């Protein structure tokens, strides 16, 4: 179930209005959570891995906080953009690869709006294996809204979203924004928050999973020393 498809004409008209306002005052729900990630970095900061790094904005924020930061990106065009961004950078490197093929060890692994592109349990297990003892997995994820509780979480986000947009991007966009870059690969999440909670109880045990505003959840896990 999605709040935009509720079969009530008033709710749907409200949804269309909200969508129009959001299009005119866009802001990134994903980048909004970068602060949450940066506040939770572990003490030891040798190597960071950003999975599905897209154009590399989070990598640019991890840079300066780690000795090395690696971005892996499965989409060739996006990997090209990120590679170009950090060309010649001694700290940040970008690999056009699938997360499943990554090896080595890391002090932090980040995933922003990526886990729903991956096989859930296998990817959590792989991330846990790649972490050094004391290393931290930090996930900002999307879940499919299905239950009334899910909808109840989406409702304040839907109402707050245009307000935040107007503050962050006060000048309305009149034409579609084209930054000249390739489109970010997107996918609707298949798993619900309940599915993710069940998976996280098994792997990695002890992870802290929380619903958040703006259609996101966060997951935090530190590999025991
Ligand atoms: C919605 S985008 C998010 C990008 C970026 N993390 C951000 O916050 O802007 C999801 C990204 O994950 C990448 N992706 C999907 N499957 C992947 C995989 N198996 N390994 C690495 N990256 C993957 C996609 O190509 C896409 O760039």
From TrEMBL:
Signal peptide stretch: none
GO biological process: methylation
Recorded GO MF terms: methyltransferase activity
Lineage, top ranks: Bacteria, Bacillati, Actinomycetota, Actinomycetes, Micrococcales
Domain (Methyltransferase type): residue spans on this chain: 49-139
Annotated CDD domains: AdoMet_MTases (cd02440)
Xref: InterPro entries: Methyltransf_11 (IPR013216), SAM-dependent_MTases_sf (IPR029063)
Record flagged with keyword Methyltransferase: yes
Cited Pfam families: Methyltransf_11
Keywords for the protein's UniProt record, in alphabetical order: Methyltransferase, Transferase
Name of the protein in its database record: Class I SAM-dependent methyltransferase
Record bears the keyword Methyltransferase: yes
Highest taxon in the source lineage: Bacteria
């Amino acid at each position: 179930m999605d709040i935009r498809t509720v079969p009530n004409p008033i709710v749907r008209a409200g949804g269309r209005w909200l969508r129009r306002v959001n299009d005119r005052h866009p802001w990134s729900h994903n980048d909004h959570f970068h602060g949450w990630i940066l506040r939770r970095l572990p003490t030891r900061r040798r190597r960071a891995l950003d999975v599905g790094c897209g154009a590399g904005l989070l990598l640019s924020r991890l840079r300066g906080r780690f000795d090395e930061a690696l971005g892996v990106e499965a989409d060739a065009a996006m990997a090209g953009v990120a590679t170009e961004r950090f060309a010649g950078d001694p700290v940040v490197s970008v690999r056009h690869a699938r997360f499943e093929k990554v090896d080595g060890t890391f002090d932090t692994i980040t995933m922003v709006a990526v886990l729903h592109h991956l096989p859930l349990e296998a990817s959590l297990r792989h991330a846990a294996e790649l972490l050094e003892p004391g290393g931290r997995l930090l996930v900002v994820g999307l879940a499919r809204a299905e239950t009334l509780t899910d909808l109840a979480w989406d409702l304040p986000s839907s109402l707050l979203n245009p307000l935040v947009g107007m503050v962050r991007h006060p000048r309305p966009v009149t034409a579609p924004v084209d930054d000249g870059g390739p489109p970010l690969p997107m996918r609707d999440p298949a798993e619900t928050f309940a599915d993710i909670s069940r998976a996280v109880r098994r792997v990695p045990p002890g992870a802290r999973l929380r619903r958040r505003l703006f259609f996101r959840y966060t997951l935090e896990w530190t590999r025991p020393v």
